[in-house]
Every structure is written in structure tokens, then in C-alpha cells.
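Now read these lines:
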Amino acid sequence: MSLGEYRTLLRGATARADTPALMELLTSGPWPKEALQLVGDAVLVAVASGASEASVLARRCVAALGQRDWEGDVELAAALSAAGGDGPTPMLRPVPVDLEELASVLEGDPARGGGRINLRNGEVWPHSVFNDFTDDDEEEDDDEDDSPWLWVDAQGSREGYRDMELFIDTVDDRTLADRLSIAIAGRGAFRRFKDVIADDPAAAERWYTLSEDRLGGRARAWLAAQGYTPTRALRP
């Protein structure tokens, strides 16, 4: 099974809360290091379902996250430890937000980006869409203590650029690594990087896995810093 196929199946089983499929995927072999945020979300669902051996998987995932130590891994490990009964429950308020949607707003253009999270239903509203569709009553709620909105300020693409640098350091093919290093120099780095990586499907699959996991981890860490934790990081 390819890395891309594994991710697709695991994401789908997590979204459906399909415990038998989750357990089969999670116990079928080594977990890809680049996908531990995705794996951790799957393990959380398995633990919540009461699946046999799920607590063992939670401890294994906590150890893997601790060894990797990317942004957001500490927060996910804490959630796993609590779910498995091995640690205290983090003092964070749950919100059913999609971390991928949050990441797209969080790492958007600071000049035109940003947005809000609806804390009642987890919907992520980019700033432009929010301005188009909210009415005066909703705007008045912003000054109240019980406002349903959490502001998200766009932080730009700097961390995404670092992701490319990190990935290049893991590429064994020195010719490809050199081409990628040249590609990310100067303006248009992201477009050129994608053009070069597309020539190597296996490397591209690993890149998109790493990029997605790091984006999700940063979104999780940002949310925790605001006092919240995602109750459902994936949707069908």
C-alpha cells in the first residue's frame, strides 16, 4: 500500500469512526513518521470507541510524537494520554473545528487573510467571506463575553517555507535535493518547488504528507494557545 493510499484510508475511517477499519490500519505495520498527526487523530477515535488494544496504540503514538517533537505534537500527545487514562485531561474547551480549514486561514496572506472560527459549530470563516455574509446582529456579538467568534490572524507562509527546507534535508537523492534547494531561492519558491517535486511521484507523496501533518500540527498548537482543542480534526 502506498503512503497516499494509507492516508486516504486512514482519513476516511477516522471521519466515519469505523473502528474495525481503524484498528486494521493502525496495526498493519509501522506508522509513517510524516503522518503522526493523522495517526494520532485516528487513535483518539479508536480509544473513544473502547476498542481493545486502543490504549496500547495511544501509548505508542505518544512515544512516537515525543520522539518526533514537531509543533502540535505535545498537544496531541497530551490528548492521547488523557484519552488512554495515562494523564490529566488538558484544560481546553472543545470545538469541532477542521484543522485543515483552520490552517488555510492561519497561514494565509497577512495583508488580505485571517478570519474567524464559529465556536458553536467549528466553521472556519475567511475574513472576506465573513464580511459578505454576517449581519449586524452577529457583528454586535463581538463585544460580548459570550461571543461565538474566535479571531484568527493570518501569519503568512514563513513556516510553510521552513517545511520545504526541512523536507529537502530528508531527501536522499542529492540531485533532487539540489534541484529543490535551487527552486526555493527567491520569489515564486512554492510554485517552483511543486513543479520540481512533481517529477518524482514518491517524493511528492511524502512531501504532501509531511506538509499536511505540519500544517495540522501548527493549527492544533495555535488552537491550544487560545484555550481550545479540536474535537473532530477530520470530516467526511
The mean pLDDT is 90.
